[in-house]
Amino acid sequence: MKALVYQDHKTVSYLDVPDPSIEAPSDAIVRIEKTAICGSDLHIYHGPSRSEMGEFTLGHEFLGTVEDVGSDVRRFRKRDRVLVSCTIGCGVCALCDDNLYSGCMETTQMGPVTNIFGSPLNPGGQAEGVRVPFADTNLFKIPDGLNDEQVLFLTDILPTGYMGADLAEVGPGDTVVVIGCGPVGVFAQLSALMRGAATVIAVDLDDSRLEKARARGCRPLNPSREDVAEVTKSLSGGKGADCAIEAVGSPATVQLALDVVRPGGRVAVIGVVAGAQVSIDFFPVMTGKNITLRSGIVNPQFYIPKLLPMIVQGKIDPTEIITHRMSLSEGARGYEVFDNHEENVLKVVMTP
Ligand SMILES: [Zn+2]
Ligand SMILES: [Zn+2]
Predict the structure, then answer these.
(1) Neighbouring residues of 67: CB distance < 8 A, sequence distance ≥ 6
(2) Which ligand lies nearest to the CA atom of residue 94 in the structure?
């Protein structure tokens, strides 16, 4: 079959790779019909050379149709339309049982996440097909009447954005600052609004992204023209934000999130801060202000059943973030466009 393969630093190629096959009785094989490029794929794209990481099939946001199932799979059959969780949980260990599939004791070594699709250990879904381990835990049926694009982002970034609002405990009447208007930031904004936030301040340097945030019901803020902390204070009666959600992944924006919340505020970091140290002046910033700081890898298995009905009922339209549609064979170009921020790109969706 064909797949997009990470070959080397900033080198992604459309190549022939071996077809996936059932390796364990709990596996399923899924023929992929839609797949997306994620911001975290760009971390791999900028990653080390072939000698350090080897070659592997990319992609952790994908859906399709079940083509085959192992003898232990109970909940799925051939021809079921399914979406796939980006992380692989076994579904039965103590941590999966606690809804922490990203820390699954069976599929990770309980260190940094190793159970995500599209990584050296788990061939990904930017391909014509994929093997899904523990299918009963990691596959979800797509309800009739919803098209692929409506549900594709349930595989990762919609649950990730929602997790930001969940970890920051966004509730009715809150003033919320969302830093970053990329795809995950957009879903964090929508989630904060859905949970009843009174004011959602959307922060980004890109005015076209800010215009879309305004249309969504947010207060757009470009930090090159306005001071985030000052505006937040003035919009919250002088108090500061109740919650901040960091959806960029840099030490400076983590610091900004900590700075804009009020005493007792809640900060969620859902951006991927990779390869950089965050240093916090702990007492004045955290202890002295009674701040709660949370972060984590998403557990789509936990959030999909909560978010899918919101799409069915038309409360969220995740398709609004799609800016580019192309064939998987053009995927190398898709990575370039996304990486270089060309053509006002927000999300690239590919069809094998
Ligand atoms: Zn992703
Ligand atoms: Zn597990």
Answers:
(1) 29, 30, 31, 78, 129
(2) 2
